[in-house]
């Protein structure tokens, strides 16, 4: 019995070995096989091959892989058996042997047959872009819902990829991922067991979704506007979230530093309370399975009153990234997002003086930078240039949020006698006090903005209030 306990403790210690140590010891080659002419009449890519391979290297770095070389490869067409042509396969095989590569990351979507054939040709583990993103999500998920969603997407991906060749890294553990070997449900390589596990996860996710629904109903009883941050991964959403809410959400210069959604209540300058929601970053060629899996996580985005589209305007591919964000929003079923989007041009601190001046002038004129957003009017649709890191432009951003919220709210003029402190307190608690002037005798003249759901109570209490503007 003692021997069994000791053996079990040793196995648990092995299971607890940091994945970062495995990744750091794995020499990785990143290959970017990019078609010179997209198949099926698809639109030509807006990014250069170099920019795309740099993003793939960034994805590998997000899980601490030791990338020793990155090779962009232009392809006239895709080969069904190995994706790459025979000559390229042989060339990369030589690099794998010479550099002692243990893992090859292909920045594309491979079929199971292509993946297995390349592993045989190169004698190394091969994963595609989908597998890499799944591994990153698996590392980042911290809530029960996020973990379940990632595992479900991973199992669906693995159903056709049950043969694993990296046996020297396999170890029994409860999670999943190519670095740690197959998870507990995959050791038997049994499709039926995987399906059973997926069914259980779906039931658990249904329960979690119901709980989130109850939370939303509870929040609806105290109806605050929802302001959701969306944007390409590493655009600075979490840094902006922290700056606006004084929270301490993880913010790193790393792709997919944020996965699980975070929401905080915060007050705007005129006293309006909003729910600010930080969400997972989007990325080009995001696997369809992950879009479906994380739909529940992105419910705050779908239901948001305002979307802050955070863009890294210092990035060379900022316009292409903006188009990718728009694509994902459409895939989430958010077709009417344009009238509730505020573009936030972030990382102004990384711009040189000339570029900063150019973008500031563009934002004041109400457009530019090719986001594809249909603009209804110049002021409300103009982008806001900010630096979430230094705080530059944040007052202008909060003013823009207030202005957007104001579209759906009426404003009133209220006159209060000096002794009616209770009424004044009610206005500060339930409305936005935009202006306050006191006459010589102490009489107060206020301009207030009232949410539609609170307007009946307001009018019942302040029947003599004079309407200044009507909600749209």
TrEMBL record:
Name of the gene encoding the protein in the UniProt record: hflX
Family the entry assigns: Belongs to the TRAFAC class OBG-HflX-like GTPase superfamily. HflX GTPase family.
GO molecular function term, any single one: metal ion binding
InterPro entries the UniProt entry points to: G_HFLX_dom, GTP-bd, GTP-bd_M, GTPase_HflX, GTPase_HflX_N, GTPase_HflX_N_sf, HflX_C, P-loop_NTPase
Compartmental location: Cytoplasm
Record flagged with keyword Cytoplasm: yes
GO CC annotation, single: cytoplasm
PANTHER family, sorted: GTP-BINDING PROTEIN 6-RELATED, GTP-BINDING PROTEIN HFLX
Protein name according to UniProt: GTPase HflX
Chief place where the protein resides: cytoplasm
UniProt domain Hflx-type G: residue ranges: 225-409
